Amino acid sequence: MKVAAVALASVTLATVVLATVASGFSRTEQVSSPTYTKDIAPLIADRCGMCHDAGGAAPFGLLTYADAKRHATQIATVTRSRFMPPWKADPDNGPFVGQHPLSDAEIDLIRRWVDGGTVEGDPRDLPAPRHWAEGWRLGQPDLIVTLPEAYTLQAEGTDVFRIFVIPLPVTKTRFVRGLEFRPGNAKVVHHANIRVDKTAASRALDAADPGPGYSGLILRSADYPEGHFLGWTPGQVAPLLPKDLSWRLDPKTDLVIETHMQPSGKKESVQPSIGLYFSDTPPTRTPAMLRLGRQTIDIPAGEKQYIVTDSYTLPVDVEVEALQPHAHYRAREVQGDATLPDGTKKPLIHIADWDFRWQHVFQYETPLRLPKGTTLSMRWVYDNSAANTRNPERPPKRAQWGQRSSDEMGDLWMQVLTRNEPDLVTLTRQFRAKVAAEDVNGYEVEIEKHPNDIGLHDDAALLYLEVGRPENAVAHFQKSLALKGGSAPAHYNLGTALSVAGRLDEAVYEYRQAIQIDASYANAHNNLGSVLLSQGKTAEAAREFREVIRLQPQSASGLANLAWVLATASRPADRDATQAVDLAERVVDLTGRRDARALDVLAAAYASAGRFDRAQDAASAALRLLPAEPLASEIRQRQDLYRQGRPYVAQDPQSRR
Ligand code: HEC
Question: How far apart are alpha carbons 272 and 257 in whole angstroms?
Fold first, then answer.
């Protein structure tokens, strides 16, 4: 009873407020009603013009009195409902660049203008015209590239994803402060992600596919520049970066533009261009790119509430520069939060009505500081039922993780700056391990779908080696070897994984297979030698290393390995100090005295030749190069021996067992 009464009372209150507004309004109207030229034109130019201009993303222009008048009622409706200007995130997230919501007073101004009969007003009040669609919003670019041939988008059908590749005519290394994307047909281009490929792999796919660009997946070799987002959504242009944050662009790099287009009902020609803005000085700071997200997504058909969560606790202080939530059609709601060490929860981004078509990079107006110990978290909700009008499958189908828009994804990307270089190293190293561990899940999903794809097996195996799961790497290289029907590199790869897994006899067998197919395979000889050495087969190992040097006289690792054996072999008969010094000096020269392992080998060689002063110096030089690595403690122990006038002698692995 009581509750109902309270509710009623507030309804009455609201009515009273409304009445006051209405009567206040009719009073001001008599004084001066808003006019188009004075009140509405500047507002529309500022908040709507970047899309509602000729050639903009919106279906019609709004920059003349006639256009604004024609759409007046609609304008009042969509501004009141806050459907326009489009902004998907909660208004209190951010503030982000490009987020210019209309204030309540501005929305009311529009309503009063419409209710007052869309009065035009004095033409002298009109603001100077701004032509959004012409010219570059960041100023004249230093380099403009355009897709050489326009792409023709079909009239009908579903969304089209096309990857365009534009080679850059850059002959020396440049540093990029900004990039402005112009879609070349804003009506149909919905969003674009721009990456750089330093290899010719994307270009090759483009050449193999008829027409401009290619259809398919973005290659791993096409990536964002280290630590930077390059995304585009209608009406938005990322501001120029501060000079110290530019990114490096090397000659022979291609721009790879992943373009999401929607057919308009008639054939459309799409020819994007990109303006690049350079800085003359290299960056002094590199941001890190963090990614929360899961690649184990597997949503049953019809599931209404499928939830994906992930979190990560920051090992260092950071400043968040920008965020990009990513998901495909079935996501309904996305939420990213930061929980500070004291337990306070700070919302980063919340989109209550996720729409795949509004991919956007949310760049903070002022970077958000988060202290070490802050936990970043994400919670994405998916609806794979028929009730989700954006569901691409009717009837709904099981949806698994995957790059295609018919698959699902769930990631929160964050661009962060650390306070200094050591913090950046700590963060990226730790984060790389997290991401790699998640990426292997993605590979397993892809391999389930394409079990005979050799490249997938090879990439997955390499990633398993990186995350310290060599047995899984062995399994994938075995599969790859079987699919290839035996090739020297396939045996070699398998041998490498087996040796990391500690299966040394099998590793020896695979390396020998590789060498049988290709006797001049220097890396196979080298790795075989290393495995034989760790099995205590010193003489056999030395034979392999000699073969490496015969095949590749400049091979630093071949020379270093042989020098090491000759300096440190446990059996005196296998040692040759003079030759060891000679080889080790060559390696140190070859590596410009910048390789700690080479200097360590040289130190051991000097010590075995009884030249302990020189041995100590070389060990010190090695330690200066890597103060904190695990190898450093081994070098220090060896240096202690040299101080005592003793050489380092390898332990016989047989006696260790
Ligand atoms: C970022 C680009 C962008 C901005 C900024 C923008 N619009 Fe739009 N507008 C669009 C697009 C795209 C559509 C088509 C909507 C769709 O298809 O979902 C649209 C549609 C509309 C419509 C038609 C809605 C309907 O129901 O069909 C109106 C009216 C409108 N905009 C008014 C405005 C006004 C007023 C502003 C400024 C206050 C504004 N827009 C700012 C992109 C924009």
Answer: 9
Please choose, from the candidates 70, 359, 411, 415, the residue with its C-alpha nearest in 3D space to the C-alpha of residue 236: 359
Residues 403-438 have pLDDT tens digits of 777 889 999 999 999 999 999 999 998 998 898 989
Angle of CA points 384, 57, 161, to nearest 5° = 50
User: Is the model's pLDDT at 495 over the cut of 60?
Assistant: yes
Q: What is the dihedral of CA 381, 386, 390, 396, to 10 degrees?
A: 90
- In tens, the pLDDT along 502-557 reads 999 999 999 999 999 999 999 999 999 999 999 999 999 999 999 999 999 999 99
Angle at 472 between CA 470 and CA 478, to 5 degrees: 100
What is the C-alpha radius of gyration for the chain, rounded to an integer number of angstroms?
32
How far is the C-alpha of 168 from the C-alpha of 146, rounded, in Å? 10
CA distance 513 to 530: 16
Q: Please tell me the distance from the alpha carbon of residue 608 to that of residue 576, in angstroms, as a whole number.
A: 8
Residue 595 CB partners (closer than 8 Å, separation 6+): 556, 587, 588, 625
| Closest C-alpha among 393, 175, 200 to residue 303 | 393
Residue from 39, 78, 159 whose mutation best tests the ligand 1 pocket (most atoms within 8 A of CB): 78
Quote the CA–CA distance of 443 and 439 in Å, as a whole number.
6
Q: Cα angle vertex 206, ends 203, 211, to 5°?
A: 145
Average pLDDT over residues 214-231: 87
Do 592 and 555 meet the contact criterion of CB atoms below 8 Å apart? Answer: no
What does the pLDDT look like over 450-462, one tens digit per residue?
899 998 899 999 9
- Does the pLDDT at position 9 exceed 50? no
Residue nearest atom 7 in ligand 1 by C-alpha distance: 85
User: What lines the ligand 1 site, CB under 6 Å?
Assistant: 47-48, 50-52, 57-59, 71, 74-75, 78-79, 84-86, 102, 234-235
Query: With contact defined as beta carbons under 8 Å apart, do 652 and 570 qualify?
Result: yes
**Which pairs count as long-range contacts for 419-428, CB under 8 Å and 24+ apart, including other chains?**
419/316, 419/317, 423/316, 423/317, 424/286, 424/288, 426/315, 426/316, 427/288, 427/314, 427/315, 427/316, 427/318, 428/288
Q: Would you mind telling me the total number of residues written for the chain in this entry?
A: 657
CA 98, CA 118: separation in Å to the nearest integer? 28
Q: Which is nearest to 235 in space by CA: 284, 186, 179?
A: 186
pLDDT at 20: 36
Q: From 48, 88, 181, give the residue whose CB has the most ligand 1 atoms within 8 Å, as the site to mutate.
A: 48
If you take atom 19 of ligand 1, which residue's CA is the nearest one?
58
Distance CA(626)–CA(475), nearest Å, equals 34
Q: d(Cα 571, Cα 538) in Å, to the nearest integer?
A: 9
pLDDT of residue 44: 94
- Looking at residue 99, its pLDDT comes to 85
Whether omega before 489 lies within 30 degrees of 0, making that bond cis, reads: no
* Residue identifier of the C-alpha nearest atom 32 of ligand 1: 75
For the purposes of burial, counting CB atoms within 10 Å of the CB of 318, is it exposed (0-12), middle (13-18) or buried (19 or more)?
A: buried
Burial of 42 (0-12, 13-18, 19+ CB in 10 A): middle
What confidence tier does 131 reach under pLDDT thresholds 50, 70, 90?
Answer: low
